[in-house]
């Protein structure tokens, strides 16, 4: 994430398929008053900023998933050898927003699921596209949606998003939390993440919450 202004401009905005994607034909039934989901889609600043603005999401935390607790530190993860991916843990109310709708937002505006081990100006396995499912039901719905999107050829290339069981989520350092809201004029945010928020508002007005 530590890029020069020129590199940021060159990397510019991630192209996420050109518009709102079809709704999932397979989804989970609402159960309970709270649930969690973990998504990885490049730098966690933008992914967190998007989900914080989704109706029914009660909390979004930037952190790491895919590696061990011992290596869950930003400077270590940035080396690209920990197995971790920069991730966001989303806590939500299933009666207001479904897991399938969260997947639709994730694939439509939060990142480009066809980029392998990179997003925009950021490169490395720590920036890979991944869904860390917490149970078999989440896995089933995510698998079905990825197949649905690939079969419909909504992207020019195949989706490379990994489906991995969540073995642990580790929050990132405090200065990473709510970074977009606290630093709206930071160049990386301006060029890479604010466009995602605008796309969320445009494509999902029924889910968008202004902050």
Which features characterize this protein?
two-stranded antiparallel ribbon, 211 residues, disordered N terminus, 6-stranded mixed beta sheet, globular, 19% strand, single chain, Peptide Methionine Sulfoxide Reductase, Chain A, 7 helices, alpha+beta
Secondary-structure content class? alpha+beta
Please indicate the percent range of residues in DSSP E strands (runs of 2 or more).
15-25%
Q: Low-confidence stretches at least 5 residues in length (pLDDT < 50)?
A: 1-17
Shape: globular
| Beta-strand segment tally | 8
What is the subunit organization of this protein?
single chain
Q: What would CATH call the class?
A: Alpha Beta
**Global Rg:** 16 Å
> How would you state the average pLDDT, rounded?
92
Structure, described:
This protein has 211 residues and is of the alpha+beta class. The chain has one domain (5-203): Peptide Methionine Sulfoxide Reductase, Chain A, CATH 3.30.1060. The protein is 33% helix and 19% strand. The protein has 7 helices and 8 strands, in the order αβαβαβαβββαββαα. A 6-stranded mixed beta sheet has the order 7-6-1-3-2-8, covered by helices on one side. Strand 6 (129-133), helix 5 and strand 7 form a beta-alpha-beta unit. It is globular. The model is unreliable at 1-17 (pLDDT under 50).
Question: Strands, helices and their partners?
Answer:
Blueprint: H1 5-11, E1 35-41, H2 44-51, E2 57-65, H3 74-77, E3 85-92, H4 99-110, E4 118-119, E5 122-123, E6 129-133, H5 136-152, E7 162-165, E8 169-171, H6 179-182, H7 187-203
Parallel strand pairs: 6-7
Antiparallel strand pairs: 1-3, 1-6, 2-3, 2-8, 4-5
Helix pairs in contact: 1-7, 2-4, 2-7, 4-7
């Amino acid at each position: 994430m530590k890029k020069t202004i020129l590199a940021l401009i060159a990397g510019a905005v991630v192209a996420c398929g050109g518009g709102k994607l079809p709704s999932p034909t397979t989804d989970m039934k609402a159960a309970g008053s709270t649930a969690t989901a973990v998504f990885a889609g490049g730098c966690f600043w933008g992914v967190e900023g998007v989900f914080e603005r989704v109706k029914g999401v009660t909390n979004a935390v930037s952190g790491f998933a895919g590696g061990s607790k011992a290596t869950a530190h930003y400077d270590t993860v940035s080396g690209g050898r920990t197995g971790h991916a920069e991730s966001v843990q989303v806590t939500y109310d299933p009666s207001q927003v479904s897991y399938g709708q969260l997947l639709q937002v994730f694939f439509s505006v939060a990142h480009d699921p066809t980029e392998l081990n990179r997003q925009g100006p950021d490169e490395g396995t720590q920036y890979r596209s991944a869904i860390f499912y917490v149970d078999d039901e989440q896995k089933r719905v995510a698998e079905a949606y990825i197949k649905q999107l690939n079969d419909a050829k909504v992207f020019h290339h195949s989706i490379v998003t990994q489906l991995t069981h969540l073995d642990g989520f580790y929050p990132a350092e405090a200065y990473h939390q709510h970074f977009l809201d606290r630093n709206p004029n930071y160049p990386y945010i301006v060029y890479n993440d604010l466009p995602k928020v605008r796309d969320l508002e445009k494509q999902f007005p029924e889910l968008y919450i202004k902050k």
